[in-house]
Amino acid sequence: MNFDRRLLRLLYKSSGLFSLSILFGIVAAGFIIGTAYYLSMYVDGVFLQKKQLSDLWTFIISFIICAAGRVIFSCLGQRLRSSIAISVKRELRNDLIDHMEQLGPVEVRSLKTGNITAIVSKGIDSLELYFSEYLPQVFLSLAIPFLIILFVFPFSITGALIMFATVPLIP
Fold it and tell me: Mean pLDDT score of the chain, rounded to an integer?
C-alpha cells in the first residue's frame, strides 16, 4: 500500500472528519448488503414461494429504504472526503507559500518558476484523489469484508468461516 507518512500527517487535523467519512462508507456498505438481502427475499418470494405482491410489501419498502440510505450515506461520505482533500490542499499551498517567504526574494528568484508552478498546480492538485478516493477506499476495503462476514454468519457459519479464512487473500 502506498502510504506516505508526511501526507498522513496532513490528515491529522481532519482525522475526525476522515473517520466520520469512513463510518459513512461502512454504513453505506451495510445498506448495500440490505438492498441485496431484501431483493433476494423479494425474488425468492415471487419466483420460488409463489407469493402475491401484497405479501411482499415489507420487502419492497425495506429495499427502497436501504437504497435511499445507501445514496444518502454515500453522498455524505463523498462530500466529507472532498472537503478534507480541499483543506489538505489548502494547507499544502499555505505551507509552500510560507516556505517561499522564508527563503526570501533573492533565493526565490534563483529557483525555476516553471517547476514551482508545476508543483503548485499539478502536484498539489493530484493529491486530491489520494485523499478523497484512495485512502478512504483502503480503509473501506479493510472493513467491508468483515461486515459481509458478520451478515453471513447467522445464515451460514461454514460460509462465514470460509470467507474469514479467505479474506487475507483479497488483494
Answer: 88
